[in-house]
UniProtKB/TrEMBL annotation:
Class of enzymatic activity (EC top level): isomerase
Identification of the protein by name: Triosephosphate isomerase
Species per Swiss-Prot/TrEMBL record: Emericellopsis cladophorae
Family: Belongs to the triosephosphate isomerase family.
Molecular functions per Gene Ontology: triose-phosphate isomerase activity
The enzyme's E.C. designation: 5.3.1.1
InterPro entries assigned to the protein according to its UniProt record, in alphabetical order: Aldolase_TIM, TIM_sf, TrioseP_Isoase_bac/euk, Triosephosphate_isomerase, Triosephosphate_isomerase_AS
Length: 247
């Protein structure tokens, strides 16, 4: 089964009403590869406006979701609230949340379980720090993150994995095609060994970390790279070129 190419745009904590309106207009008027699934993720305050104004062929993702259904959790948003606003996706386990907001593997896995069980698909992020890469423990680190996820979920059909080496995020230091392909292949092998051949074959594995319109085509040729999670470049018109990387 061919995996549909997937490009996610993570706006992080960037944008204003006017700049996000411009991004939405740009995407609505762009010629996007019909064979690529596109999902954009604005800050939560803009989720509903973006969902209402963006072409319905493009998905919208929250950048976080809490694992409790409702109640006294100041500052959090529930899965049901996302669904009530027609938001079908969430990015979970982004390294900025794992490091700056101190989210553990357990917290990320729990959020992913609650989201996917309620029908919200998840771009689930993993990846190693520079120290871990230099210590040669990349595959070990990613495998540990995957093992935590596996212990919480059984349905992988709503998961898209994003491999994002922390040292490549927002730094301009993109992983080489062979560095990225090596880890993507290892993730697929991990899924085959620990989940099933079917899940390994069907799960999209995205690369994230300083992807831009210049480096995307070569990365997109790799057999185990099924798309991208894009930060900085998703705020620019060049995001369209990344969506069209396979053309
Ligand atoms: C990200 O935030 O997921 C990301 C990959 O950022 P950037 O593309 O800016 O490196």
């Amino acid at each position: 089964m061919a995996r549909t190419f997937f490009v996610g745009g993570n706006f992080k904590m960037n944008g204003s009403n006017s700049s996000i309106k411009e991004i939405v207009n740009n995407l609505n008027n762009a010629s996007l590869d019909p064979n690529t699934e596109v999902v954009v993720s604005p800050p939560s305050i803009f989720l509903q406006t973006v969902r209402e104004s963006l072409n319905k062929k493009i998905g919208v993702a929250a950048q976080n979701v809490f694992y409790k259904p409702n109640g006294a959790y100041t500052g959090e948003i529930s899965v049901e609230q996302l669904k009530d606003s027609n938001i079908d996706w969430a990015i979970l386990g982004h390294s900025e949340r794992r490091t700056i907001l101190e989210e553990s593997d357990e917290t990320v896995s729990l959020k992913t379980k609650v989201a996917t069980e309620a029908g919200v698909s998840v771009i689930w992020c993993c990846g190693e720090s520079l120290e871990e890469r230099e210590a040669g423990t990349t595959i070990e680190v990613v495998s540990k993150q995957l093992a935590s996820l596996k212990s919480h979920i059984s349905d992988w059909s709503r998961i898209v994995v994003a491999y994002e080496p922390i040292w490549a995020i927002g730094t301009g230091k993109v992983a080489t095609t062979s560095q990225a392909q090596e880890v993507h292949k290892a993730i697929r092998e991990w899924l085959a060994k620990n989940v099933s051949d079917k899940v390994a074959e069907e799960t999209r594995i995205l690369y994230g970390g300083s992807v831009n319109e210049k480096n995307c085509s070569e990365l997109a040729q790799q057999p185990d790279i099924d798309g991208f999670l894009v930060g900085g470049a998703s705020l620019k018109p060049a995001f369209v070129d990344i969506v069209n990387a396979k053309q």
